Amino acid sequence: MLRSNVITNRVSSAEFIFLLLFAAAIFNFSASAGAQAPVSDDVKHNTPGQPVRPDQGVHVEVNLALVNVTVTDPYNRLVTGLEPDNFRVFEDNIEQEVVNFSSEDVPISIGVIMDLSGSMANKLGKAKEAALQFFKIANPEDEFFLIGFNERAQLLSPFTSKVEDLQSRMLSASAKGQTALLDAVYLGLSQMRSARSGKRALLIISDGGDNSSRYSEKDIKRLVREADTQLYSIGIFEPFEYRARTPEELNGPTLLNEMTELTGGRAFAVANLDDLPDIAAKIGAELRNQYVLGYHPSNRTRDARWRKIKIKLRTPKGFPPLSVFAKTGYYAPAR
Fold this sequence. Notes:
Strand order of the largest sheet: 7-6-5-8-9-10
Order of helices and strands: HEEEEEHEEHHEHEHHEHEEEE
Radius of gyration: 29 Å
CATH class of the largest domain: Alpha Beta
Distance between the termini: 62 Å
Number of helices: 8
Number of strands: 14
Strand content: 15-25%
Helix content: 25-40%
Structural class: alpha/beta
Number of domains: 3
CATH superfamily of the largest domain: von Willebrand factor, type A domain
CATH topology of the largest domain: Rossmann fold
CATH architecture of the largest domain: 3-Layer(aba) Sandwich
Shape: globular
């Protein structure tokens, strides 16, 4: 009998404790709901969604891949006015649905990387003229930075929208020393981390080659793949038979071509220095007249692996064969 009484008392105590905990939980829930009530009164219902512009970063649970695309005709002229149905996007050979399409001109964050090595001594004047021509076609919302490099890369001007500041920094630069092109690209990609625009590009003006960088070609190509930045280059090359025979200088055109191709940009080779300003203006116009395609990747695995991108065209009737330039892929997010 005593044993039964003891058990009964223990059960009653447990029940009492349970009731206390339950009551406390109810009180905390009510207090929390009461604290949040005023916030819910300010919520707007049935509001329209905001359109996503190409210059905006998208931070949502569903990944949206954005691809800048340039289209040219057989004469290397820009082709504008195409429609979403003219484009097909493939990721790892699987066709994706294009859910966003834009061809509007948006603000751009641009870095100009100027070769100031000794081999540029007789070319620097025209190279500066080309850069100035590139700055002239800027929009008021654009921002620029300027990097010069010889045996080391140096930030000559941080991001600014004042073109006159860039001009003064550039005009005082002189050519001497060796060529650290890869280090300059690394510095340019590092500067892009503070860019305010979603659309970003680097313009390299150089006679090619590298003989002084700390970073290797493999390192930089990996960074170029990871960065959401298009690379363009103007290569000022002498005819092949007159070039210096060092392996680095002979590899200059190939290096610039390979880096730009990875990002969907382009490399322009120049033999006549007088053509430099026109080519710089052409690159500026190309950046203003790109198509932006957005799609949700069907492969949502977060494995940090390289995903290949291929853009194909349904060429409109009556058009000649067209060429497409776009980045070759991207690294999937990690877990």
